[in-house]
Amino acid sequence: MKYVDEFREPKKAEALLWEIQKLGKQLEKPLKIMEICGGHTHSIFKYGIENMLPDNIEFIHGPGCPVCVMPKGRLDDAIAISQNPKVIFTTFGDAMRVPGSKYSLLQAKAQGADIRMVYSPLDSLKIAKENPDKEVVFFAIGFETTAPSTAFTVLQAAAENVKNFSLFSNHVLVIPALQALLDNPDLQLDGFIGPGHVSMVIGSEPYQFIAQEYHKPIVVSGFEPLDILQSVWMLLQQLVEGRCEVENQYNRLVQERGNINALEAMNKVFEVRETFEWRGLGDIPNSGLKIRAEYAQFDAEVKFTVPGVKVADHKACKCGEILKGVLKPWQCKVFGTACTPETPIGTCMVSSEGACAAYYKYGRLDKFAKQPIAEKEKVTV
């Protein structure tokens, strides 16, 4: 890859769309394809990809947004830690405006809590070394994409004997979440677009169960428009030919067995929780990561007392159903009215990877937003 433009060439997009149109006609029946990652959701809407596809192909938005799947109870726990006067609480910017049961981290900061936005856990470690009289806590969220950087930071803190650094671990795993979705009888899917960033770490091999046990095709995809179009084409090829396989469109970055160094660091620092609560999906066995006992000195849940109470979502918010792919954002009564990026009620409207945020940002405010293009109309990407 030399230039981003290579992945946005209109002529290549037009050629792929012609092939997709032909395959779509062969399949005839309505097809539901889930893009697991919220990054894919935003790319699909940003480049108008949904509008380009045949009418019988529908994208279903999955739970691949780490901020969106954060339950209110865990956020309340984070806020409780941040309100300790001895604590400097650090977090990625996405989590600042996520509403808890009473208020968000941003509102807690306005009330006096020392909460700082960082770009990486290493920034938090630096703050800890600069403030030896304070306890610095990093709000560790994300899938396998961000867990390795957290693990490497813990290893560095241990090597440097930094005693005032810890993390509140809310890292989650994508494979158990996919199993929970596939076991949901209300959700009928024909194939998956696999998450590119997660797969850079875990590889493409862990998705074999989707093809072998559930008989669904999956294609791991990049995030540029041509990446997504090619992945849709590859999925349709499998469906036309009656195949169910794991294919890797994103082979310029994703390897079959993933990033061995990253996986080793994760396994050294973290172990799998017996169960972890996901917004919308409930408790999923073996789906979260906690710090191993040998690194307990860096575990904020050991250092601090947290409420640990499960909190129900706002009754009007349909984030849970949207994360499960059961509803579209415009089917939520408060979407775009009471719930906007300025006044969010649910996490899906706050996160940069949230489905509601994508629909709102790119003007998909109702079910009529998708307007099919004519077959011979020139495509611009």
| Tally of contiguous helical segments | 15
The quaternary organization reads as single chain
Q: Biggest sheet: strands, sense, closure? A: 5 strands, parallel
Widest sheet: strand order?
A: 2-1-7-8-9
Low confidence ranges: 371-381
User: What is the strand content?
Assistant: 15-25%
Elements, N to C (H/E): HEHHEHEHEHEHEHEHHEHEHEEEEHHH
The count of β-strands is 13
Distance between the termini: 18 Å
Shape: globular
Structural summary, described in words:
This protein is an alpha/beta fold. It is 36% helix and 16% strand. The protein has helices spanning 10-27, 38-46, 49-52, 72-82, 105-110, 121-130, 147-160, 174-182, 196-202, 208-212, 225-241, 260-269, 300-303, 319-323, 355-361, and strands at 31-37, 57-64, 87-91, 115-117, 135-142, 165-171, 191-194, 218-220, 246-248, 270-272, 275-278, 282-285, 289-291. The strands form 4 sheets. It has a 5-stranded parallel β-sheet. A 4-stranded parallel β-sheet has the order 4-3-5-6, sandwiched between helices. Residues 371-381 have low confidence and may be disordered.
List keywords for this structure.
globular, four-stranded parallel β-sheet, 381 residues, alpha/beta
What's the gist of this structure?
With 381 residues, this protein is of the alpha/beta class. Helices cover 36% and strands 16% of the residues. The longest helix is centred in the N-terminal third of the chain and has 18 residues.
